[in-house]
Amino acid sequence: MATEDPMVAALLREREGLVQSGLTDRVADVDEQLRQHGVEPPTDKKTEPTKPSNRSTPPKGRQPRATDKA
């Protein structure tokens, strides 16, 4: 959703982060603020928080850290 109002844009970004984190009670608070600014909050297509990434493997294009040898 594109908007010219910087406050609405900030609220929408905050809302997206809260949805991804699974903080539904805080999403409702942000939705209320959006309504006060005259914007209907977007509907959640995915209400489930995202699965955390597996940190045991290095990101693509990176080598694992070499151990220091004396």
Give short descriptive properties of this protein.
70 residues; mainly alpha; 41% helix; 0% strand
Structure commentary:
The chain is built from two helices and no strands. With 70 residues, it is mostly helical. Helix 1 runs antiparallel to helix 2 (24-36). 41% of the residues lie in helices and 0% in strands. It has helices at 6-21, 24-36.
Secondary structure category? mainly alpha
Helical amount among residues, as a percent range? 40-55%
The proportion of strand residues reads: under 5%
Radius of gyration: 19 Å
- Main sheet makeup: none
Strand segment count: 0
Number of helices: 2
What is the mean pLDDT?
Answer: 80
Order of helices and strands: HH
List low-confidence stretches.
none
Q: What global shape is seen? A: elongated
N→C terminal distance: 56 Å
Question: TL;DR of this structure?
Answer:
This protein is mostly helical.
SSE map:
Blueprint: H1 6-21, H2 24-36
Helix pairs in contact: 1-2
